[in-house]
Write a structure and sequence with these properties.
By secondary structure, this protein is α+β, with helices and mostly antiparallel strands. It is built from three helices and four strands. The protein has one domain: Alpha-Beta Plaits. Helix content is 20%, strand content 11%. It has a two-stranded antiparallel sheet with strand order 1-4. It has a two-stranded antiparallel ribbon with strand order 2-3.
Length: 107
Amino acid sequence: MTHVVLEACIRCKYTDCVDVCPVDCFREGQNFLSIDPDECIDCAVCIPECPVNAIVPEEDVPGNQQHMIKLNAELSKKWPSITKRKGSLPEAEEWKDRTGKLDQLIK
């Protein structure tokens, strides 16, 4: 099993999770982070670090977010690794509680 970044991360991109990941499985896009399922060791240390609760175990991905499993896998193959925390996006506070943000994802 692996962990999955959900739509809640889009347009926020808090990177607190990156600092605690022991295997550097996070990948960085312009306005979203993804998890490489081939690298994730299912340790779960990233889950409590996410201020928008955007990281869950694959088996706990809600029905309306199932598409994010495949999307994380696809994007993690294209995007570079991120291993150090960076500042969140300038609009993060404005977007953190919004839902239905998939159309905002920059691939």
